[in-house]
């Protein structure tokens, strides 16, 4: 009984870490790409208006 409970808790912890991005580099890469696009928008708008 104790071993089964231990495995359930460890699976829940690993799923939580994966969802939060601690063990999934793809999520981190997507967040970084989104942040880069958001930062790039004002610069591209100012460049198009200055031309």
From TrEMBL:
It comes from the Eukaryota. It holds the Pfam family MatK_N. The chain crosses the membrane at residues 26-49. It comes from Najas flexilis. The keyword Coiled coil does not apply. Keywords: Chloroplast, Membrane, Plastid, Transmembrane, Transmembrane helix. InterPro entries: Maturase_MatK_N. This is Maturase K.
